[in-house]
């Protein structure tokens, strides 16, 4: 496996603000890599460091083994899909898509043919003559994608590309992006603050918090085995509970995470819990439980018999589902 | 996947390529280079000249030789306090106030209609209807009024046709503002000032009114306010920043003008005419310079007040 | 502020009267250009004729003044476009210490009464012992024209998204290519509109010019002399009409250019 992007101790400071603080990352070639974190956590700055819009204050960045510092964005064979799409308003769609090829001096007929192909790829055939202002948000997003892909970049950077779309369109684009990435085999680096999006699309995820990478792993790793309280809180709705409460073999003072769906309703032999409230989520129902003063979320299939509010029930979980966390963060 | 191309490309080379890389690596330098020409120009030509003006106002003129004495003195500023000069300053400032109030009154219906009711084609017509007179030739506008106000001109003709000549004569007979004919009266001067500066009042007023939410007025009448009360308690306070912004122009322009009162008006001088006369025929540049400090000080004070009222947002 | 209601009749009348007040005097100029009356401003005109157009056409002093005005306006506009664009680009592209001061400095020449700019330049010329020439006129005109270009350009720069430049560089265009293919097409119409307004402003300027022209005669100065001491009323009438037409064209052009630009930009949001 070739490493496509390598961060070694990369920092980016704005005065006293540490936007990116000593980040180490290795992103494999052909990987769909997500950078996930709340706004201001440094994920977009990392993306801009790869694109070349920002320069690291310290540390070293390599793209396919080549040093990237002090290389302007226009000399990096890396392309970006911008959050606001950044389509050129004065050019029609075809000229927008063909822009990169035009800059490289490719002849008109050839670059238009390639641009048409790229528009086919994003399912916008025949839209070439329109202006960006005549397209919907979803269509503009596809044009932005085609404009980047037509250059056959070694790495494609996507900065919250689905953020401005409505839910249905977003889900559809998630599937399309994923299959496009499979077909093209290009490294996709995807920035998002939506954990669902990251979990469903990425091969690997880096979780950012306050300029630092706090955990890197597969979606399963991140979801099932969060390293820190922050990750457990941020990715989904994990229960964060005292470790000795979750499993008697653990020592007091540590914290552990427990997925709500790992909490089972049992007939007997479990722990006694009181149902505080329940909310119907479709296929699943969420129960908020109280066990000796500790709040716990449980997810149960809606099609089974569910207790009413205030009812006393028995719940249990496997100790393998309890994940001890780094207590410092 | 086969990637024939390197991930870092060498760039297009040549002078432009090298220069582009250099600029990209030194953004501060580039910013400096961009700002250098305009700052040099404005700094040397404009600020330098203003400074030269300020310096000259501290010189004085030798009364016998008529030569400028290049020695520091406050004597020239003292001359400003002569009754004749004070009279000029007072007349100019009071005219500026009168013209500003008149302009606000005449501008309001146009600005209000354009902001609240006009749309589509009419919006464009109103916009151009204000922009064209604003930008059309200043001298031609004054010339037009010379034609209108002349004794044999259209205004007298209209009054005669309506058998109202007696009314015009009565108005012209009023001391101070009247005169032989409208074109040599103080009244005429104010009228032309009003005409020429009116677009400068309409535009910021309209901008301020555009920002008033329409439902605010409906809320006011819903709460039982008469149209007059709505105007006084809701519309006027909201339009005020626009009026102040517009009055910056009408005030500043009236204070500095020397052509309108020279062509249409009585023989009594305005600040602008005094400056022009002192620097030109008399060659008394120090006194002319000292005179210009008056509008600068007034405008500085005025801008400071306007800023406190939040008028700059309406500009 | 929008209303679906009908405007009160009194408001309609007041607004219409206001607009008429603004336009009738200018229309009057067109009537007077054709009058047969030579010695006074008599109304109604005793008759109409085209002969004054021919007379004006044959007047070398008018042509000379027009030529100087056009020269001054063209050169001042070019200088102002260069300075104003540079300033606008620098101010809107990056945050730096003192950008507020720079905005103020650009606006000052038009915010202070023109006579101050005029007398200031004049006293500077006299201190530095610079003789009057076409270039002393241009020096003044370019200074107050910068603000027109600057305002137009800053507004457009602000509206066109900063990520367009990033996008262009991301797609392989270096600084010069980005300027040529993205920045210029996006701010071009705003610059051109600003340039037209600056041209109209310079072509018409008289207050500053009287201080910086010395013995030279631009068209506005020619008109001013006619206004103070009327000698050739019919010729002045014709010149006034031509001046109105010449200044209307760039203003209408600038209006249509920025209007289209605004519409496209507005939709692209």
Textual characterization of the structure:
The complex is a heterotrimer of chains A (329), B (315) and C (269). With 329 residues, chain A is an alpha+beta fold. Chain A is 26% helix and 33% strand. Chain A contains ten helices and 18 strands. In chain A, the strands form four sheets. A six-stranded mixed sheet of chain A has the order 6-7-8-3-9-10, with helices on both faces. In chain A, helix 4 crosses helix 5. Chain A is elongated, with a radius of gyration of 24 Å. Chain B has 315 residues and is mainly α. Helix content of chain B is 72%, strand content 1%. In chain B, helix 4 (83-116) crosses helix 9 and helix 9 crosses helix 11. Chain B starts with 13 loop residues before the first helix and ends in a 7-residue tail after the last helix. The model of chain B has no long low-confidence stretch (mean pLDDT 83). By secondary structure, chain C is mainly alpha-helical. In chain C, helix 3 packs across helix 8 and helix 3 (60-93) packs across helix 10. Chain C is globular. Classes of the chains: A alpha+beta (329), B mainly alpha (315), C mainly alpha (269). Chains B and C meet through helix 1, helix 2, helix 4, helix 5 and helix 6 of B and helix 1, helix 3, helix 4, helix 5 and helix 6 of C.
> At the fourth CATH level, what is the homologous superfamily of chain C?
MetI-like
Flag low-confidence runs of chain A: none
DSSP strand count of chain C? 0
Distance between the termini of chain C: 21 Å
Q: So what's the overall shape of chain C?
A: globular
